[in-house]
């Protein structure tokens, strides 16, 4: 039996609907939105004494069910199909005496003005507004004008819709411009029996008298999981919010039927502020043999550890899922702007939502475990929030590591998953939200959060490699006497501080373009200037160019650790201008003949990376590289002459000699600084 129309235009044809309902017979037809799902929304806006008009009623049971449960009895139903009106009159004549059915077109209604308190439309607008052609839009305007005419002030137009973008936009624009309050509800669906993959929405347009000259619009959205509406600023924002919910529903439908071939990422937002509260990644492990107890688990990433390789990269999360032994692992990262009470409250908050992302075949009542490291949600305390014209918004925060250590981090919020600078902390201090230890009780606990900066410790693996690159300096001694070092890019100051403190005769010049970073490094990371440490607030490009023109061959080592603010380029460190050939020639000019130029390169674009390496080879005859395990960083050691070439044995000997010279009584030396081991992975490009 062919029930679907031959063209969208037939949805507005009485002849089509007569044929449709004659062929379908007495069986009720619900396009979408069953009464049990719509009932919670309808109860909010339909009162028992209201006079209700249902437009395009068809043979839906919606009016009958509203009548039978006592929601409302004074209901008038209209439709353009004579066949369905006669059918529905017969069905309700003896059992629903106060409900009536009329053959009438919603575009030309015979009712007097302000006759109804509620107009209910279930799919009629969707059927009428099939495209954005002028004749179709004119029909929509005519329908809206008629609905507006028959509604009283304070009355509600309730439109049940799949909320295609052009349908929603047309309805919201029309009624908001008329001064009506517009609210969009997402209908909570019974997912086990859901007929349509797309979610169902109810537009609630409340009629107010239009105030001449007023341009104010009240637009709100009310997601299915909450009663409190969220205000949005424009029609475009409302349409976008609905589109986000449609995409989420489609995503849930897809991954409930088949495994994810790629890792999926989505944000769950705070109900009050609308800002991201949780970031979820769905990770499937095809190698895990499914059983009843290992199909699905939730992993809460401790606060402050979301940037670690295991949690912050696709490969890391893949290994985490495989080692956890679950077919599907949902990792959950917590956002720094949000407050969390603890694991139990997070579990209660997420338990309903995460089940929407469950894998295929998971029993409805299956208990899903929540996992974490050490069973807690970690510690994060934001110490400082700031903003600068050059770096944008940034935060300084203290976080707990994977043991009893605490770290201070600098994060640029435009790239919030990347730690710009990091330092280990030492002395105890109180983090917000933690109970203070009574002075007359126990000794200090090993879990108490520290505060003072440990200047002897390099947290970043790429900084350790950059320091190890000093073994490539020419000359007979592994530890040079006087050493002139130029560092471009200050950050928190850990790298120049380490060189200054451990190379006792080194003179360190630092170039930093952003004065805010100098303030942050000084106030929060223990950085300070002195006779052997000077910071020049300047553009690194200009500073190097000036030195090349005035005083060539003056630095033993030049280190670039500069991030790029342009996230559209496939290279986040350094900015492209720093690896252009004319500028690199100037870098070589200010480098001593036996010096070394050390560059932190972070480039995900393979073609761009090869171009950078080719340019470096043109300028520097000898090029060494050291990949940082688990990271995109690659440290490049560029020597101005071929005489600096050394084999593995000689490099290892120089590294051990330099390490021995740097180890001094009373000076901390971490085992991870094993310079010879760091240089073992160096290779010539």
From TrEMBL:
GO terms for molecular function: methyltransferase activity. Transmembrane segments: none annotated. Gene3D superfamilies: Vaccinia Virus protein VP39. It comes from the Eukaryota. GO terms for cellular component: cytoplasm. Pfam families: Methyltransf_31, Spermine_synth. CDD domains: AdoMet_MTases. One of its GO terms (biological process) is methylation. The keyword Methyltransferase applies. SUPFAM superfamilies: S-adenosyl-L-methionine-dependent methyltransferases. Keywords: Methyltransferase, Multifunctional enzyme, Transferase. Coiled coil: none annotated. PANTHER family: EEF1A LYSINE AND N-TERMINAL METHYLTRANSFERASE, SAM-DEPENDENT METHYLTRANSFERASE SUPERFAMILY PROTEIN. This is eEF1A lysine and N-terminal methyltransferase. The lineage of its organism: Eukaryota, Metazoa, Chordata, Craniata, Vertebrata.
């Amino acid at each position: 039996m062919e029930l679907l129309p031959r063209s969208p235009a037939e949805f507005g044809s009485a002849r089509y609907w007569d044929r449709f309902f004659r062929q379908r017979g007495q069986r009720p037809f619900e396009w979408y939105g069953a009464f049990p799902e719509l009932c919670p929304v309808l109860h909010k806006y339909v009162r028992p004494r209201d006079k209700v008009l249902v437009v395009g009623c068809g043979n839906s049971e919606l009016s009958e069910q509203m009548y039978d449960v006592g929601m409302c009895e004074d209901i008038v139903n209209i439709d353009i199909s004579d066949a369905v009106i006669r059918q529905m009159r017969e069905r309700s004549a003896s059992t629903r005496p106060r409900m009536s059915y009329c053959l009438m077109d919603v575009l030309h209604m015979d009712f007097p003005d302000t006759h109804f308190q509620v107009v209910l439309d279930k799919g009629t607008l969707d059927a009428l507004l099939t495209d954005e052609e002028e004749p179709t839009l004119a029909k929509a305007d005519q329908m809206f004008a008629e609905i507006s005419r028959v509604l009283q002030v304070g009355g509600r137009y309730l439109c049940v819709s799949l909320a295609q973008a052009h349908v929603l936009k047309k309805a919201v624009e029309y009624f908001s411009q008329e001064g009506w309050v517009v609210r969009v509800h997402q209908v909570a669906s019974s997912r086990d029996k859901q007929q349509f993959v797309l979610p169902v929405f109810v537009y609630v347009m409340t009629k107010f008298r239009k105030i001449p000259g007023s341009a104010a619009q009240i637009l709100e959205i009310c997601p299915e999981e909450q009663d409190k509406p969220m205000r949005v600023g424009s029609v475009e924002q409302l349409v976008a919010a609905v589109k986000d919910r449609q995409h989420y529903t489609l995503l849930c439908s897809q991954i409930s039927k088949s495994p994810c071939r790629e890792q999926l990422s989505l944000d769950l937002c705070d109900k009050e502020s609308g800002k991201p509260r949780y970031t979820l990644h769905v990770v499937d492990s095809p190698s895990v043999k499914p059983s009843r107890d290992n199909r699905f688990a939730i992993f809460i990433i401790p606060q402050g550890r979301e940037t670690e390789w295991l949690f912050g990269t696709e490969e890391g999360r893949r290994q985490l899922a495989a080692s956890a032994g679950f077919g599907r692992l949902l990792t959950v990262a917590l956002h720094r702007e949000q407050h969390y009470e603890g694991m139990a409250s997070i579990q209660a908050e997420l338990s309903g939502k995460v089940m929407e992302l469950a894998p295929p075949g998971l029993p409805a009542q299956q208990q899903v475990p929540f996992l974490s490291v050490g069973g807690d949600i970690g510690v994060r305390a934001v110490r400082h929030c700031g903003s600068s014209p050059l770096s944008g918004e940034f935060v300084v925060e203290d976080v707990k590591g994977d043991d009893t250590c605490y770290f201070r981090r600098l994060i640029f919020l435009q790239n919030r998953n990347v730690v710009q600078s990091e330092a280990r902390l030492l002395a105890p201090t109180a983090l917000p939200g933690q109970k203070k230890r009574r002075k007359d009780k126990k000794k200090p606990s090993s879990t108490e959060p520290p505060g003072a900066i440990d200047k002897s410790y390099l947290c970043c693996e790429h900084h350790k490699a950059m320091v190890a690159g000093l073994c490539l300096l020419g000359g007979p001694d592994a530890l040079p006497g006087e050493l002139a070092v130029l560092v471009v890019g200050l950050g928190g100051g850990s790298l120049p501080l380490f060189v200054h403190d451990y190379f006792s005769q080194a003179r360190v010049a630092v170039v930093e373009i952003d004065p805010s970073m100098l303030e942050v490094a000084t106030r929060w990371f223990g950085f300070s200037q002195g006779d052997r440490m000077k910071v020049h607030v300047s553009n690194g490009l200009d500073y190097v160019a000036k030195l090349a023109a005035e005083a060539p061959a003056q630095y033993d080592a030049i280190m670039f650790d500069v991030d790029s603010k342009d996230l559209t380029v496939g290279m986040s460190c350094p900015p492209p201008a720093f690896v252009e050939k004319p500028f690199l020639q100037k870098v070589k000019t200010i480098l001593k003949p036996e010096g070394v130029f050390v560059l932190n390169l972070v480039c995900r674009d393979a073609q761009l990376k090869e171009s950078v390496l080719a340019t470096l080879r043109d300028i520097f005859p000898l090029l060494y590289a050291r990949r940082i395990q688990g990271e995109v960083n690659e440290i490049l050691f560029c020597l101005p002459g071929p005489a600096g070439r050394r084999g593995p044995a000689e490099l290892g000997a120089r590294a051990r000699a330099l390490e021995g010279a740097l180890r001094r009584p009373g000076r901390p030396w971490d085992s991870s600084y094993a310079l010879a081991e760091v240089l073992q992975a160096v290779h010539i490009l």
